[in-house]
Design brief:
The protein has ten helices and 41 strands. With about 675 residues, the chain is an alpha+beta fold.
């Protein structure tokens, strides 16, 4: 080993001098990021909300088997609001989200274990509002007087698909958490979301859609008069449609009321999710708030997403995404003004004391819950972890724009991360191996926020490219629609094009490229291995392998998703067969690693079983690991640690890099 200076074309992040770094082969560097650090010491922070000047968030704790705790900050004091065994979460649509709300000193939340609904009044212990076997609840909103809570109910006690409804619970009534399903207000549509009462209690707005649409394809924004007499349960008058019934496919999402009684929502009718204002009382035509070529909206995979926030002065704080990157704006009188705020992952919430609260996701630090104001240094209320890393240990995203194989499709997008380590650099004259990441969804996005899933590799001497292939969010509806009927083609082509661009630029070793992806990204991984000889190996994390089985077996939310991604089934069965990795097994000639949860209801573990069996029958080297108690995504500390170590060992084996002397090694057969 000898001192070295960073290789030409490979720029390490940070500011310290590279002269004292020690030369080691790329992919073998000792890293400050251990599996224990990622799996056991890092909190999962999410869903920041406000009630007056109080700030709430959900804290996932790997050391407690991934239990999610509702936490409150009040006047400098932080307190857990949900003691064990409560696990704040929901399985509506399987992906959940919107598991709690807070207003007027009251909190309503869902307990993930049994789907029951609970109320916390002030600092009192949680009290049951309702629940029942087979019922799940999400997307809560309290009435203005705090007497009732509205939410989405998903009923699995049916002969066919789970039935959706918007229901109400009485916050003042004692209830049996096993025998109260709420009072139904809206039923009929295949899917319902975002029940939002107006500030004066006169109206209710919500979003609905039907098969085969997904919420980013076409939805309806609906409203109705909210009727309530005395202590009776509320009911709705005949509803009407505010947007989405004119025959034009559009996605209308995130309804939210302004203090003056006008309703805001984001619609992509222009090709971009932009905000529109609706005069509900007078049923006037929608008015655009501040048209722009940027997305104020995210694909509604989970409930409770927040892309904007009305402010007390009548302006609107908005998180706009352009070219995959977040920008904070204030919208006022049709104009958009940039805001100097840190790095929110969703739009901040306004506090009654004039401050803001948000989940901060910078490119060079782990996530934190923040309190502050534009132009001021924010206060950290909770850190996911204090990083034991120097500045030069952190790889920073470089926005990558590259030519696509189909020139008419324009430009592809990705984030490239060069290797980064404060103590080591590569051997002179060599280039780093590349880890290609295919995000899930496939309607999702890669973003440049700090992520251990990236830094785990870059700190060890791997380069990473996180690809926003066609179909990704943050580039407008036309870019998203590139994947229509083309899943398994466009996504793979774009990943290959990103690799070819990096190879042409001399930034990565063309003989040491591996590809990894989870869920939908797993299909991209396996399809890429079958169609290209660029890749030395691939990892499928709970990935799709059999499209026909997925169309018949997956949960309700995604049961018709493939209509737009592949085509209607069974009419287009031939396409399903051709695009399925299971039928492409004979074209895969490199090792594959499969990691899957045994309780996965989105992509059943049989998908990985059948694919691994098909590869072994053809003599292809592969390894398969299954994890008890894990669903679609890994939560437990032991699982996260083991998955990281197995994948690292797998790549080092197939790339001919030295492997660790201790710990578990991947068994390839």
């Amino acid at each position: 080993m000898a001192p070295c200076i960073s290789n030409p074309g490979i720029s390490n992040s940070g500011t310290s001098s590279p002269v004292d770094r020690t030369s080691l082969p790329y992919g073998t560097w000792p890293s400050p990021i251990s599996a224990d650090l990622v799996a056991g010491a890092t909190l999962g922070l999410s869903d920041v909300r406000a009630d007056g000047a109080d700030i709430y968030w959900i804290e996932g704790r790997p050391a407690e088997a991934g239990r999610r705790v509702l936490v409150r900050w009040r006047a400098g004091v932080t307190r857990d609001m949900t003691p064990p065994p409560f696990d704040v979460g929901t399985r509506v649509h399987e992906y959940g989200g919107g598991a709690y709300t807070a207003a007027g000193g009251r909190v309503v939340f869902s307990n993930r274990a049994d789907g029951s609904v609970w109320l916390i009044d002030g600092d009192a212990a949680p009290r049951a509002l309702g629940g029942m076997d087979g019922l799940r609840f999400a997307d809560f909103a309290l009435s203005p007087d705090g007497c009732f809570v509205f939410c989405v109910r998903e009923d699995h006690n049916t002969n066919g698909e789970a039935a959706a409804a918007i229901v109400a619970f009485d916050c003042g009534a004692d209830a049996d958490p096993t025998d109260n399903g709420g009072t139904a207000l809206v039923m009929g549509p295949d899917f319902l979301a975002s029940p939002r009462p107006s500030p004066d209690g006169r109206f209710m707005a919500w979003v609905e859609w039907d098969h085969p649409n997904m919420p980013w394809d076409a939805t309806r924004l609906r409203a109705a008069s909210l009727l309530q007499e005395g202590t009776d349960m509320p009911r709705l008058a005949a509803p009407w449609t505010l947007a989405g019934d004119d025959g034009t496919a559009r996605s209308v999402i995130e309804p939210r009321w302004e203090a003056n009684g006008n309703l805001l929502a984001s619609s992509d009718i222009s090709g971009w999710w932009n905000l529109y204002r609706f005069d509900v009382a007078n049923a006037s035509p929608a008015v655009p708030v501040a048209p722009m070529q940027a997305e104020i909206g995210l694909p509604q995979w989970i409930f409770g997403l927040r892309s904007y926030c009305p402010l007390p002065d009548g302006s609107i704080l908005a998180l706009a995404i352009r070219d995959g990157e977040n920008r904070m704006l204030v919208l006022r009188d049709g104009a958009a003004t940039p805001v100097d705020l840190h790095f929110p992952t969703q739009c901040p919430v306004a506090l009654s004391d004039g401050m803001l609260a948000w989940l901060d996701t910078p490119p060079d630090d782990a996530a934190s819950v923040m309190r502050g104001a534009p132009g001021q240094a924010p206060t950290v209320l909770r850190r996911a972890i204090t990083l034991p890393m120097a500045a030069d240990d952190i790889a920073h995203a470089q926005a990558l724009h590259f030519p696509l194989s189909d020139a008419a499709a324009g430009t592809g997008h990705a984030f490239f991360y060069p290797p980064a380590n404060a103590r080591y650099c590569g051997v002179t004259g060599t280039l780093p191996p590349l880890v290609v990441m295919a995000h899930g969804g496939p309607t999702g996005r890669a973003n440049p926020a700090f992520s251990f899933k990236v830094q785990w590799w870059t700190s060890r001497g791997f380069a990473v490219v996180d690809v926003n292939y066609g179909g990704s969010t943050g580039f407008g509806r036309p870019y998203r629609e590139r994947l229509e009927r083309e899943w398994g083609i466009v996504d793979i082509d774009d990943c290959i094009a990103a690799c070819q661009h990096l190879m042409t630029q001399g930034l990565v070793d063309p003989k040491r490229i591996v590809i990894r992806g989870s869920s939908a990204g797993g299909l991209t991984v396996l399809g890429a291995l079958a169609r290209s000889d660029l890749f030395a190996a691939g990892t499928s994390l709970y990935g799709v392998t059999d499209l026909r089985a997925l169309a018949q077996e997956t949960h309700k939310f995604e049961s018709r998703y493939l209509d737009s991604l592949i085509g209607p089934y069974p009419q287009d069965e031939d396409t399903y067969i051709a695009r399925s990795p299971l039928t492409q097994a004979a074209d895969i000639h490199v090792p594959v690693l499969f990691l899957h949860g045994l309780d996965d209801k989105v992509v059943p573990p049989a998908q990985a079983d059948e694919m691994a069996r098909a590869l072994r029958q053809r003599g292809i080297t592969c390894a398969q690991y299954e994890f008890e108690g894990e669903g679609h995504g890994f939560r437990k500390e032991a699982t996260v640690r083991r998955a990281l170590e197995l994948e690292l060992d797998f790549y080092r084996q197939v790339l001919g890099l030295p492997t660790a002397q201790d710990g578990e090694h991947v068994v390839l057969r």
